[in-house]
Amino acid sequence: MVNAGAIVVSSLIKMDCNKAEKFDFVLQYLNKMAGNEFMGFSNATFQSEKETGDRNYAIGYYLKEKKCFPKGVDMMATLDLYFQLCSVEVTCESGSVMAATLANGGISPITRESVLSAEAVRNTLSLMHSCGMY
């Protein structure tokens, strides 16, 4: 149920913003984690996910039916954002800086900026350990 959790989390991101602003917010945050190393987007992957993501659409409708989304959330817009976030590209270098940021207690080893709180690092690493890095 990793996908279900990721879809619900996507619905909670910057609820007062439009889809483009939500995506930009997450991309900027990931960029901070990556120490401003390469961060890209694959439109081909995004389009493919939208066209072939039947299981994710089914999960979305199930979550909607069970009232898992906050009131007023557009499930299709949430799935679009989820598919966009699944289409973010990183290089080995930027991915390794993101991992190093987690290993360094949330502080980017490149910029020395505090990107994540100690609590967020602990919770993220616990989830990665129990659920994997899918």
Automatic annotation (TrEMBL):
It is an enzyme of class 3 (hydrolase). It catalyses: L-glutamine + H2O = L-glutamate + NH4(+). Pfam families: Glutaminase. GO terms for biological process: glutamine metabolic process. GO terms for molecular function: glutaminase activity. Its EC number is 3.5.1.2. It comes from the Eukaryota. InterPro entries: Beta-lactam/transpept-like (IPR012338), Glutaminase (IPR015868). Keywords: Hydrolase. Belongs to the glutaminase family. This is glutaminase. It comes from Homo sapiens (Human).
